[in-house]
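Bench notes, afternoon.
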Amino acid sequence: QTRVVELLFTTYNAPANLYCCVTIDMMLPFTGGVYGVATFYTISPVRHLMFVTPRSDAFPPPNRTDVLKFTAELVFIVLILRTIAWETRKHWRTARKVLRDARQMEAGNSTSG
């Protein structure tokens, strides 16, 4: 029986150039009713432009906190991509082994029957 329903979506507000990531959790306890929890995260892509555009009045030079955040985000993305690569490689190896074992079992069954 379903006890938790989770709704995840992202919206983009073009005039404000702002992304909003929304998570809504609805918990259904045994006693009945619904308990809801909503979480909103806003992401402004403009702050990333400070690192790739020439300096002007529109984009002031980044301070140390901005540089630290940007570096941490890049490291996080690299770690996620590395983990995805490791997991993909592991699953391919497992799939090949399962298929090889299945072929061997099939070949063994066909010769004995």
